[in-house]
Amino acid sequence: MIQMDYVSTRGGVEAIKASEAIRLGIAGDGGLFTPQEIPQYSPQELQVLFRYNYHDLATQILSRFLSDYDSSDLQKMVRAAYFYPDKFDDPEVTPIRILSGKRYLLDLWHGPTCAFKDLALQLLPHLMTKASQLVNDHNEIVILVATSGDTGKAALEGFKNVPGTQIVVFFPEQGVSEIQRLQMVTQEGNNTHVVSVHGNFDDAQSGVKQIFGDQGLAEKLSQNNLAFSSANSINWGRLAPQIVYYFYGYSLLCRKGAIQTGDKVNIAVPTGNFGNILAAYIAKRMGLPVHKLICASNANNVLTDFIKSGCYDRNRKFYTTISPSMDILISSNLERLLYYFSEGESQWVKDWMNQLKVSGCYQVNGLTAEKIKQQFYGGYASEAQTIAQIRKVYQEDQAIIDPHTAVGIEVYDQYRKESGDLTPVLIASTASPFKFNSSVLGALGEQVTGVNEFLLLEKLEKKAGFKIPASLAELAGKAVRHREVCQKEEMGAVVEKILGIK
Q: Is residue 479 part of a domain?
């Protein structure tokens, strides 16, 4: 196995092993760790890969990136993370639903918290604890998370009661659905801490990054045998597992006869922080036959404008939408893409990120902008279009989808109409509709105002024709355990208080 080392997108640290990158979460220069090269699969190797079940496929792909992990250890971790039926309620892990017009939904929400984040965050605790062993670090790990809704619960569930860890999750007080909020504030576990922040997701994410960069706080932690790490997709251990399901989704299309091995597909992804679609791009770089990557945004369409113009400008109105996991104006994972497209010119990336920090915007050079346009299509869906798409898919395909998936379908339909490209498309369905029952039922014309959240779940169950996920049904009887609220400027102090350090 070839040794895979990791470098910072900003070029300020020495190359390190995968276990060190996962353990640290973020590079000391503020950049993101990324592999020195993207491994490649030949068409012949892909044919073999496409015969594997999800567990074996994940083990094979991850072993290429995590070369200092023993492959038998990886296999055990993967099987524990994606175990059916205890962890995931479908034996295929990420099954496919067929819509009309060569559109295929890759359902990524069959894990314990009903969102695509489970595919990474059920595995990350295993990778993290093994990383500590490999780097001989005996500090207790403090996981810091900023969430726009789904990452928080998935991380809390993944790290719940994991020995040698504490997890602190910050979420925007008014920026998540009621079910998402309930999932977090009722979280059990003797090492879990949840705090709501007055502000939006970008405020929470910026606060977490500031805490990571606080050298004084890092020294205090060290004196108390503690060390920070991240479960957000800035951590490579979060991103790598997401590459797997695009390979698996393609293999399922082959098995269903929708395509032949080697045929190209398009991939459409509703995204805010750019991690999920970046995983699809990496899969393409590895050899997966992909034609176009469709980047779908909601009204917070900073990525749409960037893909079209090469100018990233977060100086705009922030919208709170019915697809809250995408209510983001600072897309952290875009930094990795810029590194790849600038041919490793880390100084360019560093300059762009500094401009973003100082002025809230940056303009990439013409060559980089053109490369991005060739690979990606950017579009966005308004609230009205999202609602209309939920209704349309239900009427035409008898399928229930959540608002984020609706954004993905709407933007793909825009792309197809604009380009005339009829290549089969794999659309990432990122969350269970039950997590957004009020928005979904409202879109379908049902009365939702003033109706109890759990009565809405029952109503959607009848409409959908499949059962309420057990983890959501159980919320009705759970007590609220986390009530802490803070200003964004107080996040560092809250972490110190939680950890009991001075």
A: no
Phi/psi of residue 413, nearest 5 degrees: -60, -40
| Amino acid at the residue 195 | V
Residue 100 located in a structural domain: yes
Rounded to the nearest 5 degrees, what angle is found at the Cα of 102, between the Cα atoms of 101 and 103? 90
Closest CA to 212 of 192, 236, 231: 231
pTM of model > 0.85: yes
The candidate with the shortest Cα–Cα distance to 492, out of 96, 228, 116, is: 228
Residue 488 among the catalytic residues: no
Q: What is the CATH number of the domain that holds 341?
A: 3.40.50.1100
- The string of DSSP letters for 67-114 reads TTS-HHHHHHHHHHHT-TTTT-SSTTSS-EEEETTTEEEEE---STTS
Residue 76 belongs to a domain: no
When pLDDT is averaged across residues 28-35 and rounded to a whole number, the result is 94
Among 26, 237, 284, which Cα is nearest to 117's?
237
- The answer to whether 39 touches 286, Cβ cutoff 8 Å, is yes
**pLDDT band at 148, cuts 50/70/90?**
confident
Phi-psi group of 334: left, alpha or beta (phi > 0 → left; psi -120 to 50 → alpha; rest → beta): alpha
pLDDT in the model for residue 1:
66
Of the residues 76, 87, 117, 435, only one is catalytic, namely 117
Residue 133: CA count within 13 A, CB half-sphere: 11
Instruction: Give per-residue pLDDT as tens, 214-270.
Output: 999 999 999 999 999 999 888 999 999 999 999 999 999 999 999 999 999 999 999
Number of domains in the chain: 1
* Residue 455: both structure tokens together: 């009565």
From the list 421, 433, 428, 377, the residue with the least C-alpha distance to 102 is 421
In tens, the pLDDT along 72-127 reads 999 999 999 999 999 999 999 999 999 999 999 999 999 999 999 999 999 999 99
